[in-house]
Here is the input.
Amino acid sequence: MRTPPAIHFKDIEQVFPGKSGAPIHALHALDFRIERHEFVSVLGPSGCGKSTLLRLLSGLMLPSDGQVEVFGSPIKGPRDDVGIVFQRPTLLPWLSVIDNVTFPMRHKYGRVTPDDRKRGLEMLDLVRLGDFADKRIDELSGGMQQRVGIARALLLDPDILLMDEPFSALDALSRDEMSFELLRIWRERPKTVLFITHSIPEALLLSDRIIVLSERPGTVRDEIIVPFARPRTLETMADPRFTEMANSIRRRLFSHPVDGGEA
Ligand SMILES: Nc1ncnc2c1ncn2[C@@H]1O[C@H](COP(=O)(O)OP(=O)(O)O)[C@@H](O)[C@H]1O
Ligand SMILES: [Mg+2]
Here is the structure.
C-alpha cells in the first residue's frame, strides 16, 4: 500500500456563523496533500481562509465538512506532533529566552525537567541563539524573537511545522536572512512544512510546491512546482527564471491581487 501523505485536506468546507446573521463561507471543496518532509507554501488573498487551514491542521477546530488527515488518520483534536509559528512570536516578556522555549512543557505538565531544558538549549543552538538562553525577550531583535518562536515550535520534535506568515512583521533584510535560516534549519531537521505567506518571492525561494488559493471561499486555484535546485541561495533569486516565475504567478493572480502587493 502507498504510504499516506503527511497532510491531507480532504474536501474541506468551512462555514462560520457571521456576526450579522449571514454565515461566512471561508473554505470550499478545498483539497490538497503534502508529502512527508515536503515544503509547501500556501499563497492567497487576505481573508481567503489561510489561517483557518492552520487551525484545522493543529486540531484547534474541526471543519464543517470533510476531514483533515495526518499520516492517514483523521484529526479529532489538538495534537503534539504539530509545531506552530505565528506572525508574532507570542513570547512571554517576563521570562528568559530558554524559559520561553520550554514554556509548552510547563504549560502542559506544570514543570520543566532537566531533559526538557537540555532539549530547549539544543533548539536554541539550532536557531543560533545558544548564547542568549538567559537573556530577556526584550533584549532581542524582532528576527531573534522569531527564532525563539521557531525553537519553541521545534521543542517536541514535531514531524509537521506550520508557519503563518512568520516573517511578515520583519524588516526586509531580516526577512531574507530568516528565509535562508529556515532553509538551513529544515535541512538539519527535516520536517513537513506548511508555510503561509502572501509574498510570491518568499514562496518561490522556500518551497517545493506552491498552492494558490482563490478568494473566499478559499479553494485550490493553482498548484505550482518550484523547479529550482537546493540548496537555494541568493543566486537562486538572481536566476532569470525566478523573476519569470514570480511574474507569471503575479499575472495569474492579477485579477485577484494577493494582499500586501509588495511581493
Ligand atoms: N472564528 C471565526 N468566526 C467567524 N468568522 C471567521 C472566524 N475565523 C475566520 N473567520 C472568517 O473566515 C475568513 C477566513 O479567515 P482567515 O482564515 O483568517 O483568512 P486569512 O488567514 O487567509 O486572511 C475571513 O473572512 C474571516 O473573517
Ligand atoms: Mg491569516
